[in-house]
Every structure is written in structure tokens, then in C-alpha cells.
Amino acid sequence: MTIGIPKEIKNNESRVGMTPAGVFELTKRNHTVYVQKEAGEGSGFSNLDYENVGAIILDSIQQVYQSSDMIVKVKEPIAEEYDLIQPRQIVFTYFHFASSERLTLAMLKSKAICIAYETVEDEDGTLPLLTPMSEVAGRMAIQQGAKYLEKPIKGRGVLLGGVPGVPPGKVLVLGAGVVGIQAAKMAAGLGAHVTILDVNMKRLRYVNDVMPSHVVTEFSNEFNVRKHIQTHDLIVGGVLIKGAKAPKLITKDMLKNMRPGTVLVDVAVDQGGCMETTKVTTHENPTFIVDDIVHYGVANMPGAVPYTSTLALTNVTLPYVIKLADKGWKQACQDDKTLARGLNIVEGEVVYKEISEAFGWENTSVN
């Protein structure tokens, strides 16, 4: 099979779909890998690094798409890429279709096979290809939140860890999944007081067992959310409903009950955000202010640490890329139910019901 690795062109996205080590595993199996010129530079990998493991370097993104049976990316295609995608071409990447009807319609029109990293799901319900980026994003949420709490960038002027004689800052984490636990771990490591909310008591018991005593758990409901937003300095939204839009746990009317300079970091922004006032931002302009509350809504947070993120992503995606390349998508998905759950759109038809539900569609195909 021919596999294409294009350069990511989303704003400030420096990750790349595969490391040279991953390319080596494919070329030694006699697959042809095309890498767009300078695709890996943002992650620290040169054209020569790829050539040394058997990749063929192509000058343009158009050449990569035209030459490849399968495209392996990091982020969803953006408008400039829509017309490059070919019928029956496999596109393996993060899609987050439920947050973008325009992207969904474009991929339906393309008649491609769209396999989404974020819905590849193990039998136990874990999401192996989403997990490493959620780990990165959860940890980064605290790094970024701590920075934007500084007064020069309109935050409350709070040091999360405090100092002797001054109490630490308070962090509220919505969701005790991968993002929430990593955020809580980082915040606790800085010395902040952390409250983590979830509706899953098993997750809360786990958090209670593994976290230090200054991380406290509470059941998530609107009453508790409204109570805690009044006293916490940094609020991290880490709620995920697989393949669907995130629920709005923080509504616009709640902002008036927060202290000016409170920082909201919505890690669920890829799935529409779990805060009503969230909008997608970029690393170039990461924050905006509504009612004196600082909002951070960068949709590709791990893109700010591309070396770490690219290595972590290739570690988990490569086994599935190899299966797709060796067997073709139909046989690979028949043999691996985990991979099959990643199928979102197949040749003009939505095959993942949460996408249709997100847009209220009954007819899930295009002619």
C-alpha cells in the first residue's frame, strides 16, 4: 500500500502523523511511504531522517494526497484539503466530526473512508488512540491555566502553589477521565487545592485512592458545579462523551458568579466544548474574555509540545496503521473490532450513529 504523511496546515500545528521510526516499520514491510517536504520539522524530524528509513519526499501536499492509498495525519482536514481527498482513500486521523457539520459534509462528499482516532475503542471502553493526547492536554491545561492566572494577562493574580503563609490556589476539574486525572495530578504537584467532579463513582473512588489528600472528589451535578465555581481560581473542563458533543456544564449565566480573572480551560473544545461560552482559539491567540472571565479554548493543545506528542501518538497509532496497510481497511476492521469502531464515514455514508445524532440527521448518506 502507498501511505502519505502530509504536513499539518492547521494554525500552529507542529505535530506530524508519523515518526521516522514508524515509517521504518512500514517500509520494511514493503509499503511505500510518501512524506511531504518538511512535514516533520516542527516535531524535530528532518527530511533526511525520513529518507534514511526509506520514505520518498514529495514537494507538495497535493502530490502526497494524489499518490497515496492511505493518508495518516494528526488533525482533521481543513478546508484547503477537502478537495484533495479522493474517493475510497483511507484517511486516518483525529476528526471530531460531531463538532463540525461542515467537515462532516465535506468528508461525505469526498466518498473517502474516514477512520477517527478518537473513536477507536477497546472492549473495555477505553480509547487507546485518544489517551496519549488526552494525557498531554490534561497536563498542559494546568501549565496554561497557571500562566493565564497571572495579572498581566487579566487573570486573578494567583500563584497556584501559594507560598508559606499564603494559601494555594484552587483548581476545579470537571471529569475524572484521562484529562481530568492528569490535570489533577499536575495541579496537585504544584501544591494547588484540587476538587474533581464526575458522575462515575468508580472513577471518583479511583481518584480518591491514588491522589494525595489535597485532591478531593465530589459527585458532579449542577448544584455542586455552581457552588464550586464561586471559589475556584482555575476551572478545567475535561468531559468526554465518545464521538458526540460534550455537555454544557458551565453556562453563560454562571460566569457572573465567578470571581473576575477566573480562568476556564476547556479541553473538550474539540467536541464542541463543555462550557457554553467556549469558542475555538489557536496557540497564536489562545484566550479571550467574557464577563471578566479568561477563556482558553485551543483545540490542538498538544501541538504546542510536538516532539513529545508525535512520539506518544505514533506509539499507539502505528500498530493500526500497519494492520490497515497490510490487510486493507475492510479486512483489518473485520479482524479487529477495536479498529472497526473507528469507522465514522465510509464512501459517502455515516456509519457512526453519534455523528448523525449530533446534527439531527435521519438520512446518513449522500448520493
Automatic annotation (TrEMBL):
Q: What class of enzyme is it?
A: oxidoreductase
Which residues are recorded as binding substrate?
R15, K75
Alphabetized Pfam families for the sequence:
AlaDh_PNT_C (PF01262), AlaDh_PNT_N (PF05222)
Q: Which GO terms describe its cellular component?
A: plasma membrane
Which residues of this protein are catalytic? Answer: H96 (proton donor/acceptor), D270 (proton donor/acceptor)
Q: Detail which positions bind NAD(+).
A: S134, D198, R203, S220, V239, L240, V267, A268, V269, D270, V298, A299, N300, M301
In the UniProt record, does the keyword Transmembrane occur? no
Catalyzed chemical reaction(s): L-alanine + NAD(+) + H2O = pyruvate + NH4(+) + NADH + H(+)
Coiled-coil annotation reads: none
GO BP: L-alanine catabolic process
One molecular function GO term is: nucleotide binding
Q: Which residues form the Alanine dehydrogenase/pyridine nucleotide transhydrogenase NAD(H)-binding domain?
A: 149-297
Q: What top-level branch of life does the organism fall under? A: Bacteria
**Domain Alanine dehydrogenase/pyridine nucleotide transhydrogenase N-terminal span(s) in chain numbering:** 4-137
Keywords of the record:
NAD, Nucleotide-binding, Oxidoreductase
Query: So what EC number does this one have?
Result: 1.4.1.1
- Keyword Nucleotide-binding in the entry? The reply is yes
Task: Write out the similarity annotation.
Answer: Belongs to the AlaDH/PNT family.
Under which name does UniProt file this protein?
Alanine dehydrogenase
Look up and give the organism this protein is from: Mangrovimonas spongiae
